[in-house]
Amino acid sequence: MKSLIAHSTKTIATASLLLMLMIALCPARTMAQEAETMQKITAALTSGNATALASHFNTTVALTLPVNDGTYSKKQAEQLIKMFFEKNPVNDFTTEHHGTSNDGSGYIIGELHTTQQKTFRVYVLTKKRDGIDLIQQLQIEEA
Predict the structure, then answer these.
(1) Count of domains forming the chain
(2) Max Cα separation, the chain?
(3) Nearest to 142 by CA among 97, 72, 87, 100
């Protein structure tokens, strides 16, 4: 009987330790996923790749561009971004600030420089939807 109790106690202790590890590592995984998403968004902006950027859009996106401002479907927003990048070929994108706000939203603030020597201020806001960070708002405004 003592052996059974000792074995049960050991099993409970092991299970408790595993549970604590899973809980402790979960935020690290979430932070790593968020960082990876932000890197992919930054890479899409740097290369002027509308398709790659749109892969991170929510089903609707609040989009502000120099000639468009509104809430668009993912597909509509992708087409508008594609036209923007065609008209303003990207030379470089520089992240000035990025992080997570108190409500868990992610953000990127930066400058997009074009081959035509224009500079645009960029603001990206992401929120989690079904555990995935998706772009809710994208603003690209002439600096």
Answers:
(1) 1
(2) 82
(3) 87
Higher-pLDDT residue of 17, 131:
131
- Tell me whether residue 119 is in a domain: yes
| Alpha-helical regions (H) of 1-143 | 2-47, 50-54, 74-87
Distance CA 89, CA 86 (A): 6
Q: How many residues does the chain have?
A: 143
Burial of 122 (0-12, 13-18, 19+ CB in 10 A): buried
pLDDT in tens, 32-76: 666 789 999 999 999 999 999 999 999 999 999 999 999 999 999
Query: Which of 121, 129, 109 is CA-nearest to residue 42?
Result: 109
Range of the domain at 88: 31-142
